[in-house]
Amino acid sequence: MIQPVDLQDFFITFFSGAMIIIAGAAYALLFALSRVHRMPRLMPFAYLAYVFLFISVLVLAEATHLYGFWRILVVTMLLGYLLAPHAIWHLCVGTHAALEEDANPKSPIPEDNTHSGRRSA
Amino acid sequence: MKPGVSEISNLSGGQQLALKYFLVAGVLFGAQLFFGLLAGLQYLRPEFLYGILDFSTNRMVHINAMVVWMLFGFIGCAYWLIEDESGIPVVGLKLGNLIFWVFTTAVAVVVVVYLFVQIGPGTDTTIWFINEGREYIEAPRWADIGIVVCVLVFFFNIAATALKGRTTGITGVLILDLIALAGLYLAGMVYFTNISIDQYWWWWVIHLWVEATWEVLVGCIMAWGLMTTLGARRKIVQTWLYIEVALMFGSGILGLGHHYFWIGTPEYWFSIGGFFSALEPIPLVAMVVHAIYDSGTHRFTNSNHPALGWLIAHAFGNFFGAGVWGFMHTLPQINLFTHGTQWTSSHGHLAFFGAYATINIAFFYLAAQKLRGNVWMAGELAGNGWRWKWSLALLNIGVVGMTMALLISGYEQSFVERAIEGSGWAGYFAAQNHPWFIQGMVWRMAFGWITLAGYLLMVWDLLTIGVGDSRAAIVPGGGGDAVLEEAGSAPATA
């Protein structure tokens, strides 16, 4: 079912594991910055971070012997990290677009957006 | 309401009750640090307090104080926000106040018993009156039952208030989450003579609290906190709360399997636990996009700088503590060597502090602000707000330092004790006496003192911040209304 990590691969396992998350965050960060601030120059760097993530996943897969069933996990991680920022971005745009609509309603139905945090003391 | 003057009448009934919970949480936070320091010292000097206050007791009180102060903090947060959310006073507030004293007394009695009855055989009697023997939830059976009663009353207060008044997305999620949270605790109250079965159910409490229900609870608290400090719009935070719940539960529930690798459960848990726990960080990474989106499209005028500082610390701490530190050793192929070493402790320290302690501290500052007549707590605080800034820095540096030190010790343990020596007694002692392990423990101790210094400074700050300041709090809302900047800075859609 599992083949334990070899002694000489200890460090590379921990390092590649950490790099997956950090590169994933860097990819998401640069991706979002590029879109929010309309800086397409940043997008290649975002995908460069994803390339680091891709390599880290492959290194981790080799070090931890992710063969057989575990290949599914490798593919899911690669796709998950690639697509998640895109999905969240679309959700952000969607939720804020809905808010814009609420702010400028076509129908005169008022929405209660009051909150005590918005009232002065 | 006069800014800068501490008056209990500045708070509503629910908030007054919340303040009591926050005070006890703060005291227990101090107890957690004190007993943690004692236990840390005993790693370096095993003879220290031997036979008087043993390591096993110090460690137990350290961990239990942590769990209980988190719970007290969360309960306080829920009481703090429920009246604001529902628009009515807390239903059954007198009962809630009574239960607070019962709960606090029970916790005090349990701790005193821990300290005075440290050693002895485990029997049916000790399970009921001394110690149940399960890590994190050692409270004896009588206290277990008492805790369930207290939590049921707390649940009644929250649910009845929300249902009688205005029910919002936040209170709806909160109610459902509290049902799960209270229900899961029951799994830790059944005793099995088979250790594998006992551990199986015990993890239902620990994992499904920490990596599922607590996360959602914090999501509710965070959502309300963002509306309060930044004036974020309800529709936005509630939508994201639903998304977060789906993402967290999607990977978090079956991520439970990473605790089932080595306790005698069937082999399929390797696949289930490995697969889902490996996917647990993806939501955390994805949320980076949302944070950037919001910061890019909102004006972040906020009413409480210390609270916002701690909310930001929460985001980073959760990401690194739970995400990076968790994923590094979650796959069974490596967890075989790391589980139960200081590696786990390293992950635990950063994850608990980052994900939970930080958000409770943020609410302590919200409470301090309201207690002092909704006083000014934005920029230009007295002394440039050095106390809250330094306490935030010291607490974070201390915990991160302890995390790194424990990581070094844990790496050495995994390598020497587990991989080379094969987990035998000889390997255990070889690892414990290795210079890397000892140096890690020395550095952990040093950073522990830094953490304590941060805590003491935080207490001083909470007791004094805003006192005598006659300025009223600013009203957040610039960013909260999600006002897109002029067309030039509006985000491009995908």
Write the layout of secondary structure elements.
The complex is a heterodimer of chains A (121) and B (494).
Chain A: H1 10-36, H2 43-63, H3 70-103
Chain B: H1 13-44, H2 55-86, H3 93-116, H4 124-129, H5 141-164, H6 169-186, H7 195-230, H8 234-252, H9 268-279, H10 281-297, H11 305-327, H12 332-338, H13 342-371, H14 386-420, H15 425-432, H16 435-464
Helix pairs in contact in B: 1-2, 1-3, 1-16, 2-3, 2-5, 2-7, 2-13, 3-5, 5-6, 6-7, 7-8, 7-11, 7-13, 10-11, 11-13, 11-14, 13-14, 14-15, 14-16
Number of helices of chain A: 3
**Helix percentage range of chain B:** over 70%
**Average pLDDT figure of chain B:** 89
What is the average of the pLDDT values of chain A? 84
Shape of chain A: elongated
Sheet bearing the most strands of chain A, described? none
Alpha-carbon distance between the termini of chain B?
A: 47 Å
Biggest pleated sheet of chain B: none
Which range does the strand content of chain A fall in? under 5%
Taken from the alpha-carbon principal axes, the silhouette of chain B is globular
β-strand percent of chain B reads under 5%
Cα-atom radius of gyration of chain A: 21 Å
Please count the helical segments of chain B: 16
Order of helices and strands of chain A: HHH
User: Which class do the helix and strand fractions of chain B yield?
Assistant: mainly alpha
Low-confidence stretches of chain A: 107-121
Number of strands of chain B: 0
Describe this structure in words.
The complex is a heterodimer of chains A (121) and B (494). With 121 residues, chain A is mainly alpha-helical. Chain A is 68% helix and 0% strand. In chain A, helix 2 runs antiparallel to helix 3. Mean pLDDT of chain A is 84; it is low at 107-121. Chain B is mostly helical and 494 residues long. In chain B, helix 1 runs parallel beside helix 3 (93-116). The termini of chain B are far apart. Residues 478-494 of chain B have low confidence and may be disordered. The chains are: A mainly alpha (121), B mainly alpha (494).
